[in-house]
Amino acid sequence: MERILQKHASYLMPSYINDKEVNALRDTGNHSGLLIDESFVNPEQIIPGKTVQLKGAFDTHFRTVPMAKIEFKCPRIGLDKNMFIDAVVTKFSDGLHCNIGNKFFTQFPFLNDIIQAHQCVDTRPPSAPASPPPEFTDTPEGEESADTLIDVHAARRPET
Questions:
Q1: I need a labelling partner for 40 at 20 to 30 A (CA). Which of 9, 70, 89, 96 fits?
Q2: What is the per-residue pLDDT across 51-74, written as a single tens digit (0 to 9) for each?
Q3: Which CATH number fits domain 2-156: 2.40.70.10, 3.90.1150.10, 2.60.40.1920, 3.90.226.10?
């Protein structure tokens, strides 16, 4: 495991899944969103009936895996607070516990990708916000969607 982590060290970012510290890999070859190891998911976080089909680079067939609503924080990409995020739940075998794919940054363009501006052309539309718009942090109760981030602390505030 140590060898694997050293190999990917420049792509690893300290992150938190359900308040547990992990190293997340920013994987530009992963066209999915946020993939997390099943060991970080509580059974009640699994979203009933919500699954995705995944096929790895060396797989011969697709696998159906569940999704869960988890708390995720990664200051390196601009998530300084825990946010509820729908993540793909799978089993990692290489010592990593979180894989951040391209779709994650497409879904949430206000996040800071680790890809540096001098390495590629910025393809975000000029209107893309630099910080989370209100709809990602102040979603009205009962109006959550699969692509919605919710500020955990705002969601737990008592009504006045």
A1: 9
A2: 999 887 788 899 899 999 999 999
A3: 2.40.70.10
